[in-house]
UniProtKB/TrEMBL annotation:
The chain crosses the membrane at residues 44-62, 82-115, 122-145, 151-170, 212-232, 257-277, 289-321, 341-369. This is Sugar ABC transporter permease. Keywords: Cell inner membrane, Cell membrane, Membrane, Transmembrane, Transmembrane helix, Transport. The lineage of its organism: Bacteria, Pseudomonadati, Pseudomonadota, Alphaproteobacteria, Hyphomicrobiales. It is a multi-pass membrane protein. Residues 1-11 have a biased composition (Polar residues). It comes from Mesorhizobium escarrei. CDD domains: TM_PBP1_transp_AraH_like. The keyword Membrane applies.
Length: 375
């Protein structure tokens, strides 16, 4: 192997000295500039589309741009943004997690039961979180160590977790949370900044929910991990080529296991925040959420083939879907059309990310519109 590599290098050097075409003449070695990377990324164009949609809707319906509606939109998409961060980690590995919605239902029922038994709120939240992490660990074990397809494993967990939620709750709503009920509601209903005679925020600044701020903090943490840690480099390597990553010493099974546990963790956090916001627990919480979370992740630029995804894309994809839903309601369009719009955007997002001649369709289109000058 070493001799063949040396011969190839020597041949290239000889060709260069002889004035013949060399490999570097055909393969560009210069990396993209920061500006080129930004404008060729899917999250950038989703952001542009989101801004355009907001401007259009504000012009058509002035109430769309009010601080009250902004607060409502951010509160509604924040739980999906939180879960999309976990889903992004799983999709980067080339997997998928269909169980996040059912995990939410199980977590909220477990936490709700401990609250109705008059346990302190932190014990209830810890038990709910533990149940969610246990589901993620089961998913991760069967996917990473047994080698089963993630679709099959998480589809099975979707049914198991939902069934357990129904059984544990006796198919009833839980709402008598005991002495710590005010604390639980304060966690889920907290807002900042506040509008009030003793608060500093003017009324044109929206009151942003605890769900939104939790999403922001998690997105910053995940974004930092994606850009500055070896763990993230291993994660992307697994999604790019799992066998090659394994041969280079990457602990593939352990990292894939962690990915599914983290996805369950984000679903659990979103569930506990919604428990506080709603002030009650129902076993149907999160039903159908998995499809919207996957849609937000894909629209935000994550590749279902693995190896691509960003924290910003997860958040902006979630925001985009909620703004579309809100815009349809504001425009008086039947909300049943929301599914059609979401489906169309999923197909478009996957189409933009498809590879054509080694480049995504988006990058190839930009290359045609903005060709490099020959030097």
């Amino acid at each position: 192997m070493a001799n063949s590599v040396q011969e190839s290098i020597g041949a290239q050097e000889s060709a260069e000295r002889a004035g013949q075409p060399a490999m570097s003449d055909f393969v560009p070695t210069k990396e993209q500039t920061a500006f080129q990377r930004v404008i060729s990324s899917q999250p950038f164009w989703v952001t542009i589309a989101l801004i355009a949609l907001v401007i259009l809707m504000t012009a058509m319906e002035p109430s769309f741009g009010t601080s009250e509606n902004v607060a409502n939109v951010t509160r509604n998409f924040a739980p999906f943004g939180i879960m999309a961060l976990g889903m992004t980690v799983v999709i980067i590995t080339g997997g998928i997690d269909l169980s996040v919605g059912s995990i939410m239902g199980l977590v909220v029922i477990v936490a709700g039961l401990f609250l109705t038994w008059h346990y302190p709120w932190y014990i209830a939240f810890a038990m709910g979180l533990f149940s969610g992490l246990a589901c993620g660990a089961v998913n991760g074990f069967f996917v990473a160590y047994v080698g089963m397809p993630s679709f099959v494993v998480t589809l099975g967990m979707l049914s198991v977790a939902r069934s357990l939620a129904v059984v544990f709750s006796a198919n009833q709503m839980l709402y008598q949370f005991g002495p710590d009920a005010p604390i639980v509601k304060a966690i889920g209903q907290a807002k900042w900044p506040r509008h009030g005679p003793e608060d500093w925020a003017p009324h044109w600044i929206p009151e942003l929910s605890s769900q939104f701020w939790t999403m922001v903090v998690l997105a910053l943490i995940v974004g930092f991990v994606f850009n500055f840690t070896a763990w993230a480099r291993h994660l992307f390597a697994i999604g790019g080529n799992e066998e090659a990553a394994r041969l280079t010493g990457v602990p593939v099974d352990w990292i894939k296991f962690q990915a599914y546990v983290f996805s369950a963790f984000t679903a659990s956090i979103a569930s506990l925040l919604l428990l506080g916001y709603n002030g009650s627990a129902i076993n149907a919480m999160g039903q159908g959420y998995e499809l919207r979370v996957i849609a937000a992740t894909v629209i935000g630029g994550a590749s279902l083939m693995g190896g691509a995804g960003t924290a910003f894309g997860a958040v902006i994809g979630s925001a985009f879907l909620e703004v579309i839903r809100n815009a349809l309601l504001m425009a008086g369009i039947d909300s049943n059309w929301q599914g059609a719009f979401v489906g169309a955007f999923i197909v478009l997002a996957v189409l933009l990310g498809m590879q054509t001649g080694g480049k995504s369709i988006l990058a190839a289109s930009l290359a045609v519109l903005m060709p490099k000058k020959h030097r």
